[in-house]
């Protein structure tokens, strides 16, 4: 039996598109993982004690270490389980290429897809969900998101055509014959788009894209088994965070371990996480928190898309 403190625990919900990205990476790697179902809207009483305030899904837990945002989660999965890699063939340059596709999909393709989905099914979404998402994105009324659909359809069509162009060769996946992070990243917005039957025609009119989506879909979600939220919290309580790696001595803003800092996303869901900085490097920053019931927790974030502010700065 695996040591509970070393298990991969994914806090997600089944309809979460960003969780689907991580589920495809887990399927590719073929490693067992535990699934903790979290609510799609606040409050999230079994998540916030782990994260210190961060509310977005998914979150990866390994013992008392908590990893936020899919950018970092996929890097952690690659570090812990490097074979098979999400950077195909181990060739030079594929890691950078994969992460460029990942950011492109998250910040362009996904944002174009959201209004298309809301235009078709927004009327069926609970009022509580609309209110929650409106609070997450100040200045944006999710009840009126569907009004953005005409312009979004043009954007999404051009972006999906970019994927089609990448599939123009004989390869099965975006970067060749092997699945990569690029596939997981580009698949998850189009997986979400399938909730909108009319808009999803944008993928069906491109046979290469449709066939590629079928191949990625067929991967499933790997070796998933359920875990109760209370059990996940107990695992964190009994565990100790891993020793932090050395920090980068060339931090551009002079961050050093021991500082008290606040970390917050730069796009939406501006819920700060405050703690003692334990690690800062080019791709990752982490803080130590003391939760009244769980004890010491290390919360980790990617650098791209997050702001780190030292107390008093």
> What order do the SSEs take from the amino end to the carboxyl end, as H and E?
EHEHEEHHHHHHHEHEEEEE
Bin the helical content: 25-40%
The largest sheet is:
10 strands, mixed
Question: Beta-strand level of the residues, as a percent range?
Answer: 15-25%
Mean pLDDT: 95
Strand order of the largest sheet: 5-2-1-3-4-9-8-7-6-10
Contiguous low-pLDDT stretches (5 residues minimum) are: none
Secondary structure: number of strands: 10
Radius of gyration in whole Å, from Cα?
A: 19 Å
Please give the alpha-carbon distance between the first and last residues. Answer: 47 Å
So what's the overall shape?
globular
Number of helices: 10
Q: Structural class of the helices, strands and pairings?
A: alpha/beta
In brief:
With 313 residues, the protein is α/β, with parallel strands linked by helices. It contains 10 helices and 10 strands.
What does this entry look like structurally?
The chain is α/β, with parallel strands linked by helices and 313 residues long. Helix content is 39%, strand content 18%. It has helices at 17-29, 48-51, 70-80, 94-121, 127-136, 149-166, 181-193, 201-204, 207-217, 229-238, and strands at 9-12, 32-37, 59-62, 65-68, 223-226, 260-265, 273-280, 284-291, 295-302, 306-310. The protein has a ten-stranded mixed β-sheet, with helices on both faces. Strand 8 and strand 9 form a beta hairpin. Helix 1 runs parallel beside helix 3 (70-80) and helix 1 (17-29) crosses helix 7. It is globular. The model has no long low-confidence stretch (mean pLDDT 95).
